[in-house]
Amino acid sequence: MRLPHVQDLEQVDFAVMGVPFDTGSSLLVGSRFGPEAIRSASVILKPCNYFHEVTIFDFLSGVDYGDLPVVPGYHKESNVSIKDALLPVIKRGVTPILLGGDHSITLPELQAIHQVHGPVGLIHFDSHSDTNDQYYGQSLNHGTPFRRAVEEGLLDVGRSIQVGLRGTLYREDDLDESRDLGFDIVNAVEAHEMGMKALAEKIKQRAGQGPVFVTFDIDFVDPAFAPGTGTREVGGFTSAQTLEVIRGLTGLDFVGFDVVEVLPAIDPSGITALLAANIAYEFISLLAWNRKFA
Length: 294
Ligand SMILES: [Mn+2]
What we know:
alpha/beta, eight-stranded parallel beta sheet, 9 helices
């Protein structure tokens, strides 16, 4: 987006930052290169969001903060490092727009958010619930962050919702485990049936008035539109539907966003990173919309 690479947060409203960590991936690795690919794709973005009738920099100041430090191959150390590096940004009142990286990075993000904001509502776009207890006997993985987040009390789970879930499961009761943790769920078939406007309304109803964090796994989108990700599931959503549902989320009290699981090596066309850049742009637009209209 050609934002300046600045780490001085004086007068800054939002900070884009990369989290180039993919040690939590269960199948294909390489999302550590997601931030670089999304940044490269983002040069085409322009400041005016025509749909919202808002020109971002009339209302917000934003920077590219660079990447948060990680230790490739070392999950616990990286989680501590991500949380410690993010915390001062949030303490300054700056809204983070985080670029992954695999979905395990959202746990340390939420740990940092929780220290400042307390439990937050989670709006989780994904084809998977990511609420498994363990993978390969390990508690930290990109399939487990939201179970850990509930266990650690990071979420106001009564205001949290997972949308877009689909694909084959391990057991018939897999999704019940997510409901038992307290999440509301809209699976992909239900979301297709209700349409994106109604889905956005349902998400807003659930998220309510308190602080919310939005986490967007790019595999929410159908692999036809976002092939560059490691655990693809068919039957997903178009890029147009993706923009429509995000644009419907105006007026919420956003405390942070991430877009994760972009794996550029298996998408030579670059359309996955381009979509991820536009998703991040729509997140920023929601912040600008709130300044202009809320
Ligand atoms: Mn995920």
